[in-house]
Amino acid sequence: MEIKVLFMILISTIFINNYVLSQMLGLCPFCGVSKKIDSAIGMGVAVIFVMGMASFITYLAYKYLLVPYEIVYLRTLTFILIIASLVQLVEMIIEKTSPPLYQALGIFLPLITTNCAILGVTVLNIESGFITAELGLLKTVVQGIGAGIGFTLALLLMAGIRERLEAADVPENLKGLPITFIVAGLLALAFLGFSGMKI
Amino acid sequence: MKYLQLIINGIWHRNPVLIIGIGLCPTLAVTTSVSNALWMTLAATFVLVSSNILVSSIKNIVPSHIRIPIFITIIAAFVIVVELTLKAFQPEVDKALGIFIPLIVVNCIILGRAEEFAQKNTIISSLFDGIGMGLGLGFALILLALFREVLGANKLLGYTLFPGMEPSLMMIMAPGAFFTLAFILWAMNAIKYRQNK
Amino acid sequence: MFRTILKPALILSIIAFLASFTLSHINRITRPEIEKRLQMKKDEAYAAVLPSHSGYVIIEKGKKALVDGREFQYTIAEKTEGDKKIKAYAFETMKSGYSGVIRSIVAVDENMKLLGISIIQQSETPGLGARAKEMASTGTFFSHFFGSGSQNEPVKTQSWFEEQFTGIDCTKKIGILKKGEFATADENLKKELIEKNSVSAITGATITTKAVIDGIAEGIELLKKALEAENPQAEVKTQ
Fold it and tell me: What is the pTM of this model?
């Protein structure tokens, strides 16, 4: 039963409530890093990793620090500082332990702090009522990782299309951001098909 | 004159959303209605102006290698002020904007202006830069919301426009946001293209 | 050591301290207001689902029961009809909708027939799911703008979506029909809905509709268990 619930959370964050295409979070990196498939993969992996970690830590901080001391109103401040220092920490650890991984992910990590999908997923974890739910920590982490996978999926789809657009004959005034948004709109339209899906 | 130029820059020449292309998440997500767009503009502009002023007034005592965490802390604090004030006095607005109020923290426009402008300029210039950028954001948000609310909900400021007409629901949902922004950017490009010619 | 680690740490701590200090003051000012509004909203919701003209009077608020190891709170109301006392129950229920939790206050009579529901918290998409709270109105932008049209519409406490739940039987499964907006005056639709024990979904927001229905069903299950647990005791008391 619980496995089914976790699976549902995963599917719904990846497809039905895709963070980029249906909730419209994390659009800056979505537009900025979707020019090449390689960099999209790098960014995607970094985001999945940080989202999972951030969900885990913010859940603990909220439940065992903010709630008991009745300082829930400091949520936004706490979460953004946790995310910023987490990103910094991850960057330093990867740099020391695995230089090839750092080469691949390094340039994306600083960008992640201001990716609103990360702060978004941590805040939504709280608003989904996972704090009081059974197995809340597990659900939170699954939702975080699912959101990351959904983000990566959208980024990859976009990068694949944009690589082909390079060769296409786009009208002068549509080049750059406008055509990117038209493509994003079409993708979002396709993802609307998932809404209302029963699992 | 110099200050007027800063405001015009924010609205038109260096419009954060339409020209530079940052701060897109709130732009697309909250523009389902004009009133949401107005409140979002107000909230973001308040944070933008306050953080600009504070950052530029402490620019000489902030060690440069830890400036980013300091800026983020300052911005987050102002965002919480907005969050609490709205919750207390405008609960409907707080509900409508939901998660996008706390997400003002990671709005690239605000950190971008602190980093790029406020920490290098005087307090007064930073104030006007904040107002200009806020108005620029507002211009983009309201333009988008106008199209989306009228086409997507057949409403304006919450009142039905044409009774009996079935609106195009897609415009209220995510695809509509992307398409509307695409067409507005397209129009902007066309205007710039003509001016250059 | 001092320059590279301690000094930055010290400055950051001071800034964080100042920020939290200021915020704690703002919190102190806004908190009573926020709590007052929350309470007001709940009271309004209870008044909407157990309106005074129905005759029910709340006799016990927030009664606690332990169901399946979890606390479940419900409110008991009573009305006197002849020499019989009829009870009604109200409770708060929540369920994840399209985005975020939907909380509603639900009132049922003794036979588990819905007296009314009132949604107190939702963060659904404006124009779609959020229409669950939309008041039925015939006014248009132009009529408001030009001051024509009907100015004196009766003030409503429930949205059209909430209204249609009244009279639905919770012992059976609640169905969903796609009949568009439900108008209170539409007797035929009301009859059909009651007959099929169904509600009309919000256009384009079936998930929201389903979440509200599932929330009610879950709450009813808990309420039944709580009442069952209560009943043996009640019998002992009367003996």
Answer: 0.79
